[in-house]
Amino acid sequence: MGKALEFTEENFQREVLDSQVPVLVDFWAPWCGPCRMIGPTIEELSAENAGTFKVGKVNVDDNQGLAATYNVASIPTILIFNGGRLVQQIMGAQPKARLQQALDEAKTA
Prior knowledge:
five-stranded mixed β-sheet, 4 helices, 5 strands, about 25% strand
């Protein structure tokens, strides 16, 4: 089973911006109720899309610079990157189908 990756300020360039496949990034925090609610969904997407997409999380408490760089004002915020470019931003907890649709759309972005 796939496991969502942990993206940090140290590995974001390599893991997300330089990725050869689209990447879903979940900006979250442990104290955020809606973030914890979608956590299992993020893990499922990671498992189901292994090899096609990268799926990971950024803890905004530990990586405030990344949150500021991408203007993450509320969490959860989902950013989808393709080819090093931000191609989609989704605010708030979303159903799994919506997040999968966003990943599928990123392939052509």
